[in-house]
């Protein structure tokens, strides 16, 4: 039964069983409809795009050949899993993806029984599928575990750790290596170079060339050349490469290998953006999109340039810094575009390293550069630096090496949701000895903080939010800041009691200023999370009845906790209210919606402060009497 006009086949596919009931000759047409549905829907709402066009046939083939949901498909990252969502009962919901209360941006176990594993960060799929395969072995269950990982995802260390272990353990599992020769930007690495050469040399392999080993026979493989050799070394049987847009080829080979014993790897070649000419021509631009014209691919004309984003502020500053100082080197773990490094990479190719999706390596690589007298600037999103945490402590901070971390996407990021919010960085950074941690309240502050970090002889981090600065005129000169000193940005001496001081960190300074106008409160831009300005904290504690700390980081262990620690150490009795993110994972929505949800917009701040003031009536009148 068709339930959407214009989609005679897709309209009838509400579960993978519907797909399995179709005639195989209908599958190519279903792929055409699925691709058209993606283009039309995403043209209207935006979202991850080019990677999804590349997985249309692969998704159909996997669900056709496997017995999902009992068989598990683990998608790496999950940004390419829209076709999977569509054919697993979430077609109508796609309209809501990434929106507040809508479908999750990536695979999410709570959303569907077909989402075998929650994702968002890359390179986890082989480990997770290996765990599932091992569980099936223990439980003696006949189920299949399949990981689908891109060539970008394959650059992450975890992928290799998992191959190494799964190969050794001889697990019955399949890794589908979806090779489109692209990460978000061009993919990098030795495996990529080899794979690209191989595909060029041999072309794609017809499925009938793949023959499974018979009992007692050594594996016979399609090619005795690399990269098969690499995967064989790990203990995997290598199949391919196969054209990942040829449904016949895919279904034949999957049927042939899905019950093979031991770890199998199927190398599939796909085109990112497949079937939509503008996206095939520029997969970087169409990796993630806002609304676009589904016929021409054109994006609506950009509004007049507003305030620069913090990402742009960083990119511009870095170019200036590199011009001035030949020791400056930039490192990105596969996030050139997102981190604002496109210009820098073009202008300073000799001092630019995209290391692949390898945050751990990025951090220790920066440490090595610093050992030899260079000035590495490691640009990493807050959420992805979680991957490099031990390296940050063990390789950078213990050795007190001068690496500057430019930590983008601190705080709530919006539509990418729980896996991507930079909700924990202030907590996980501020407990590391030697590390200076700064959070800018505007774009000039941000530049000053970068300059401060670069001038230090030890490690430092500047943590800034997604989105725009305030649109301030850029100061041409920016001097390093005195370390560990905040500043008062709104004074309110001589007011009536109770006296309130807002101690704001980073982008919370702006809402604090707005709330302060109503509360007649003092506002401090604390600037440094570490070292915290203890002198300023105590001064404010002595002059006020209530201190309110404000941060877009988890309340637990965050910047507010740093303020609490100062007060406790001095046995100070001032009332304190810590505002920040709750002890919960925040899902997706716009950044503004989520800030409101967490009570961190102006109205929310006022509500919390007024509630506390009411609750503390007695204490405050008592302290007022004493004063
Ligand atoms: C740990 C981590 N670092 C960075 C990212 C950001 N990221 C999302 S998709 C992607 C590229 C993935 O490339 P690939 O696996 O080849 O998939 P493709 O988009 O080419 O289909 C990156 C770097 C991430 N999700 N996780």
Can you describe this structure?
With 627 residues, this protein is an alpha/beta fold. It folds into three domains: 69-78 and 95-281, Thiamin diphosphate (ThDP)-binding fold, Pyr/PP domains (Rossmann fold, 3-Layer(aba) Sandwich); 310-463, Thiamin diphosphate (ThDP)-binding fold, Pyr/PP domains (Rossmann fold, 3-Layer(aba) Sandwich); 487-626, Rossmann fold, CATH 3.40.50.920. 39% of the residues lie in helices and 15% in strands. The chain has 24 helices and 19 strands. It has a seven-stranded mixed beta sheet, sandwiched between helices. Strand 15 (500-504), helix 19 and strand 16 (522-525) form a beta-alpha-beta unit. It binds thiamine diphosphate (TPP). Thiamine diphosphate is lined by residues 51, 54, 76-77, 79-80, 121-122, 150-153, 180, 182-184, 272, 334, 357, 359, 384, 387.
Which terms summarize this structure?
single chain; 627 residues; alpha/beta; Rossmann fold; 3 domains; seven-stranded mixed beta sheet; five-stranded parallel beta sheet; 19 strands; 15% strand; globular; disordered C terminus; binds thiamine diphosphate
């Amino acid at each position: 039964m068709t339930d959407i006009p214009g989609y005679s086949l897709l309209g009838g596919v509400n579960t993978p069983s519907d797909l399995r009931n179709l005639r195989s000759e209908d599958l190519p047409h279903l792929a055409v409809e699925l691709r058209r549905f993606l283009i039309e829907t995403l043209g209207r709402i935006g979202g991850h795009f080019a990677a999804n066009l590349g997985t249309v046939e692969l998704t159909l083939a996997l669900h056709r050949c496997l017995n999902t949901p009992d068989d598990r498909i683990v998608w790496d990252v999950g940004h390419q899993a829209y076709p999977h969502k569509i054919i697993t009962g979430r077609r109508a919901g796609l309209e809501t993806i990434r929106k507040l209360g809508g479908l999750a941006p990536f695979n999410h176990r709570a959303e569907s029984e077909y989402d075998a594993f929650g994702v968002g960060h890359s390179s986890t799929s082989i480990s997770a599928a290996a765990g599932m395969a091992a569980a099936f072995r223990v439980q003696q269950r006949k189920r299949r575990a399949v990981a689908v990982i891109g060539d970008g995802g394959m650059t992450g260390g975890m992928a290799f750790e998992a191959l190494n272990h799964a190969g050794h353990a001889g697990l019955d599992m399949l890794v589908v290596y979806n090779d489109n020769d692209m990460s978000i930007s061009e993919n990098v690495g030795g495996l990529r170079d080899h794979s690209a050469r191989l595909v060029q040399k041999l072309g794609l392999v017809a499925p009938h060339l793949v023959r499974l080993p018979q009992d007692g026979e050594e594996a016979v493989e399609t090619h005795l050349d690399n990269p098969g050799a690499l995967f064989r070394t790990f203990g995997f049987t290598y199949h391919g490469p196969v054209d990942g847009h040829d449904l016949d080829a895919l279904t034949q080979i999957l049927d042939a290998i899905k019950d093979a014993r031991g770890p199998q790897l199927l190398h599939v070649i796909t085109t990112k953006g497949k079937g939509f000419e503008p996206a095939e021509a520029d997969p970087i631009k169409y990796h993630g999109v806002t609304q676009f014209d589904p016929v021409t691919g054109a994006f609506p004309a950009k509004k007049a340039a507003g305030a620069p984003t913090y990402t742009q502020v960083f990119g511009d500053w870095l170019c200036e810094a590199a011009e001035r100082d030949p020791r400056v080197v930039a490192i990105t773990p596969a996030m050139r575009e997102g981190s604002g490094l496109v210009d820098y990479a073009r202008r300073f190719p000799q001092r630019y390293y995209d290391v692949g999706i390898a945050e751990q390596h990025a951090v220790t690589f920066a440490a090595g550069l610093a050992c030899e007298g260079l000035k590495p600037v490691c640009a990493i999103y807050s959420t992805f630096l979680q991957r490099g945490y031990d390296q940050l402590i063990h390789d950078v901070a213990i050795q007190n090496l001068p690496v500057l971390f430019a930590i983008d996407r601190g705080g709530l990021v919006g539509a990418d949701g729980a896996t991507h919010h930079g909700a924990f960085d202030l907590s996980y950074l501020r407990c590391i000895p030697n590390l200076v941690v700064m959070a800018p309240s505007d774009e000039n502050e941000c530049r000053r903080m970068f300059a401060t970090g670069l001038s230090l002889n030890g490690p430092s981090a500047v943590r800034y939010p997604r989105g725009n600065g305030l649109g301030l005129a850029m100061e041409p000169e920016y001097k390093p800041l005195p370390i560990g000193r905040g500043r008062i940005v709104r004074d309110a001496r001589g007011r009536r009691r109770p006296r309130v001081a807002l101690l704001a960190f980073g982008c919370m300074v702006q809402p604090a200023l707005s709330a302060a106008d109503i509360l007649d409160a003092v506002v401090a831009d604390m600037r440094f999370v570490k070292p915290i300005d203890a002198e300023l904290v105590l001064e404010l504690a002595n002059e006020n009845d209530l201190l309110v700390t404000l941060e877009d980081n988890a309340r637990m262990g965050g910047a507010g906790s740093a303020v609490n620690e100062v007060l406790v150490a001095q046995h100070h009795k001032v009332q304190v209210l810590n505002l920040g993110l709750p002890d919960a994972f925040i899902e997706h929505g716009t950044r503004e919606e989520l800030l409101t949800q967490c009570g961190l917009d102006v109205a929310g701040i006022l509500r919390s402060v007024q509630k506390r003031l009411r609750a503390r009536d007695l204490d405050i009148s008592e302290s007022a009497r004493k004063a």
